[in-house]
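Case study 2.
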Amino acid sequence: MNEFESTAITAAMEAGKLQRDNYSKHNNIFYKGRINLVTEINIESERIIKNTILKRFPDHSIMAEESEEKVASTQYKWIIDPLDGTTNFAHGYPCFCISIALEKDGDIILGVIFDAVKKELFTAKKGEGAFLNGEKISVSKIDKLTESLLVTGFPYDIRENPDNNLNYFFAMSMAAQAVRRDGAAALDLAYIACGRFDGFWELKLAPWDIAAGILMVEEAGGTITGLKGQPITLLSQEILASNSKIHAEMMEVIEENNRPGK
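Prediction:
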């Protein structure tokens, strides 16, 4: 496990330096959808991370956002988001991160989330806790939704599809102390783990958005499920994470507002 962790950290640090050196500069931007973009730094970051991992573990599988999945017969699979928060990065807004997770036989055993601008390294190993720059972290102790700071995000098809989270956003804004929208789901989950946010929900997420964050929240003492409380998987897309204490209240708000456009 130590070799897995050291490899993930090395990969994240090397890609993070590239991002830190380039986030306030003009970068070539390409569009995967009307508002879903990718930059040259996404591509280069992914190349750095994959090369670092495959140099040490050439027989491992890799699922990464910007390239075709590498499938191998091994029991290990790396799940990579080379730059979560691309829109923020492209606009020079310093809220983005690298997310790397390692799955063994379907279970996430390692998570690394790195904020290169703040130089904050979040790590988690299954059964061993979650850490920020080497210091153990835990979720917040706030036990009332009305006193909670929540965070969410919106899907890329927000303009075309009424199932766009706006109904939940309005309802949570009325129920919680405040709601933020930062645009980097992996970092949002890391912030749940260290107690900066108390609750998080989002729709239409991909495995690389949540893989490392799921383990991070669980190892920090939080709860992570589907919107209706069902067990979470990497294919769930819809996710609800909290400090555990406000989870039931958040589910109640979602249940009361579970029709798109309400």
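The first helix runs from residue 2 to 22.
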